Amino acid sequence: MDQVLTDKGHYQWLVGRLIYLSHTRPDIAYAVNVVSQFMHAPSEEYMNAVYQILKYLKSALGKRLLFYKNGVYGIKGYTDSDWVGSQTDRRSTSGYFTFVEGNLVTWRSKKQKVVSRSSAEAEFLAHGVCELLWVKHVL
């Protein structure tokens, strides 16, 4: 499959700004994660994906994070991982997220550096537990 490469500097500049923005806009976090994986050799296909993200942001200017009192009490955390979930490089992705009183407050996902079955997932599970304990300590 031949891919037409695009301007690497412009691509990296745009994706860098989107990465910064995704810290306050979790609705674009997954899409930005995907396009950021191709910073070393961006193709026209991924540049078009970046433009789609920008188009979405322009149409969703009023979106923001809101926290509600919803009658759910306590702190809950969840972790998960998939084995060989990425279609492009066959690596696993692990993640965790934490809710405080029903509101999402922290989240993280990471593609593993190597293909593995257990140790990387167990390590990320430990990171999720540490995050949960940290949130509990802060509150």
Description:
The mean pLDDT is 80. A 3-stranded antiparallel beta sheet has the order 1-2-3, with helices on one face. It has 4 helices and 3 strands. It has helices at 8-21, 29-36, 44-59, 119-138, and strands spanning 75-82, 93-100, 103-111. The N and C termini lie far apart (52 Å). It is flat. Helices cover 42% and strands 18% of the residues. Helix 1 runs antiparallel to helix 2 (29-36). It folds into 2 domains: 8-59; 75-138, 2-Layer Sandwich (Double Stranded RNA Binding Domain). The relative contact order is 0.12. The longest helix has 20 residues, at 119-138. A hairpin with a 2-residue loop joins strand 2 (93-100) and strand 3 (103-111). The chain is of the alpha+beta class.
Low-confidence stretches: none
Radius of gyration: 17 Å
Q: Can you tell me the overall shape?
A: flat
CATH class of the largest domain: Alpha Beta
| CATH topology-level name of the largest domain | Double Stranded RNA Binding Domain
- Rounded to the nearest angstrom, the distance between the terminal CA atoms is 52 Å
Q: Biggest sheet, open or closed, and with what strands and sense?
A: 3 strands, antiparallel
Oligomer: single chain
Question: Residue-averaged pLDDT, rounded?
Answer: 80
Q: Number of DSSP helices? A: 4
Instruction: Tell me the strand order in the biggest sheet.
Output: 1-2-3
- How does CATH name the architecture of the largest domain? 2-Layer Sandwich
- Domain count, please report it: 2
Name the helix and strand elements from N-terminus to C-terminus, one letter apiece. Answer: HHHEEEH
Helix content bin? 40-55%
β content, as a range? 15-25%
Number of strands: 3
